[in-house]
Amino acid sequence: MHLNSVPFFLVLISGIFCQYDYNPDDYGYERYVPSPSLCAPECDCPINYPTAMYCDNLKLKSFPIVPSGIKYLYIRNNMIEGIEENAFENVTDLQWLILDNNHLENSKIKGKVFAKLKNLKKLHINYNNLTEVVGPLPKTLDELQLSHNKITKVSPNVLEGLMNLTVIHLQNNQLKGDVLSGAFRGLNSLLYLDLSFNQITKLPTGLPRSLLMLYFDNNLISNVPDEFFQGFKVLQYLRLSHNKLEDSGIPGNVFNISSLVELDLSFNNLKSIPTVSENLENFYLQVNKINKFPLSSFCKVVGPATYSKITHLRLDGNNLTRADLPHEMYNCLRVATEISLE
């Protein structure tokens, strides 16, 4: 074990982060030379991958004509403000629709334009001017990205019935207070939910128990209700850094989640270390007001087969020194490779 002040930064590599650049080789698509009619004249359809159409960086103010047969449509970095209801009239096979970095507004997205896309799986509308979650959406959707907009609400039932949805990005919006309670209820396939960089004051009720990754960093959350995470059997990554958490707002065992691998409570107002499961591996508590180091936060019992699995523990930016660490911690934190104190 090394007691150093070397900052530890964990880069989480996850398969559920979608890559924007389409590579049909990953999906086993057959290559062939397309007919010129299969691509809008202002856009680019790679000769080997004719079902993908790229219309990026063209200063477009309206949608190009999308030919039938297109499955992967990229219209990024343009000036489009709206979508007409007939924009995808002949595009029955569309699976990916990537509209990042435009000027889209909810009031200018007409009718049920997305619901008509019966094969749509991925919808990305990051960096636009949306003020609420778009909808209705097709039941086939598995990934929804709406980060870096101006979203202040999620209308009731807009996500209802999306049983295939596994990923939602809503970070960097203007969600405030307690506007999300019940918004994600029934999304029983949801694995990844990012609500960081908003102005949320309360953890929303009705979160799916299927979640693997849950991010609430950079909000205004001051407490976690008792037994809030009870029933989350597969949750592995939980981030609540840069909030307003205090000891009084954290019940004794609320973070004692047996499936949890990483817990980030850094940049809060904690004075003591919350109790966590012995299975936790990465624990971030830097820049709080912690002034004591109880082993009971990490280990209930210490024995040959009972000890904390923590490998990385950050406590720098607190009121602790090496002298505050009990000698017995070497038995409890026996697999730790890095503990940062200063």
From TrEMBL:
Question: InterPro entries in the record, alphabetically?
Answer: Leu-rich_rpt, Leu-rich_rpt_typical-subtyp, LRR_dom_sf, LRRNT, SLRP
Which residue positions does the secretion signal occupy?
1-18
- Predominant location of this chain? secreted
Keyword Glycoprotein applies: yes
**SMART domains in the cross-refs:** LRR_BAC, LRR_SD22, LRR_TYP, LRRNT
GO cellular component assignments = extracellular space
Q: Which domain of life is it from?
A: Eukaryota
Q: Which Pfam families match?
A: LRR_8 (PF13855), LRRNT (PF01462)
Which compartments is it annotated to reside in? Secreted, Extracellular space, Extracellular matrix
> Which family would the database say this protein is a member of?
Belongs to the small leucine-rich proteoglycan (SLRP) family. SLRP class II subfamily.
Q: What is this protein identified as?
A: Lumican
User: Can you name the source organism?
Assistant: Alligator sinensis
